[in-house]
Amino acid sequence: MVDIQFVRDNPELVQRKSAEKGYAVDTVQLIEVDTQRRAILTNVEELRAQRNTLTDTMKGGKPTDDQIAQGKDLKVRIAEVETSLEEVDAKFNELLWQIPNPIADDVPLGGEEDSVEIKKFGDQNTGAVDHLDYATQRDWVDFERGAKVAGAKFYYLKGDLALLENAITQFALDFVTKKNFTYMTVPHMVNTRIASGAGFAPRNDDSANEYFIEGEDLTLIGTAEAPLTGYHADEIIEEEKLPLLYAGYSPSYRKEAGTYGKHARGLFRVHQFNKLEMYVFCLPEKSTEMHETILSIEEELWQAIGIPYHVVNIAAGDLGAPAVKKYDIEYWSPVDKKYRELTSCSNCTDFQARNLNIRVRRKDGLVETLHTLNGTAVSLARSLVAILEHYQNEDGTLDIPTVLRPYMGNRTQL
Question: What CATH class is the domain 112-408?
Fold first, then answer.
């Protein structure tokens, strides 16, 4: 959630930037409820103080009739005001949680089509065979049996393609750990507080992309971002320990709700895939710089593999609630003759950390909310698509990217 003090100080700015993200919020009503809430809270504290004073005066002796009557009156009044506070608190939280993180000043306005290309790498070659046709001919992927076992958009990887996925994972893992990221495996499920705190849709949201466990307060993760965000929930981290850099590996489970009409053939958009996610906890004044660092790591990794791409500054209307700014790396598809999403990285500033009460203690003793960022190292299914499209040969063989060969027994071709 956003800082309520920021909303108090900048109601019109928050209203405008929320609208630019596509969120209909009411900062006027929020501030009215906030004012009411603070007045009731002051009343509650005053009544509790009176009760404590009365209790102190009755210590060591028998209470008088007046003291007993006063105590009963205070008990009733406190209960009434606490009930009012609970009601106002619920409304306050409902309104505050609706407000997204305000966008950075350099984020382009508009929807998905208004995102801005900021750099480009590699050539735009054409003429490749579709990855699904290519992999099926090699007997490397089986969607039919995946559907038989689990439903549409589930699949098996087989033989050399499964080994290639493992090689990409091992290469990416070595790559990011050399950049000082600590490797972590993570829980594949998180509770509602962690999921919502990280910015993922709650169970009662029809647009939710998550799978929920019936009868349990658990959600299957769509990315390691969720459990990595929750790793330091309710903790205060000493300033000298920041930044904390984590690389979380996990399966990702997604309904892919609301993706009708989007590119969805084969491995590009599926319900389950493996992913290596970078995650950062840092000082507030360092998050903008850290965002650029994560992007540079993603670029360096994909340049090493040899996949052409461009980098896009995502437009406001295509940002989720937590991010103030997001970069996507989109690879050039020689099959579709357009760019397709490969990785992303987001600066969420204090939004997720405030939700989950993650703070930093400065060297001078000041405690404040820290900042969080996330970025994809490799999303394995889409990584395979990019490599299959760019490294296939006319005779049906597949060249192995040079940096992956040590993880494939030094083979050069499949």
Answer: alpha beta
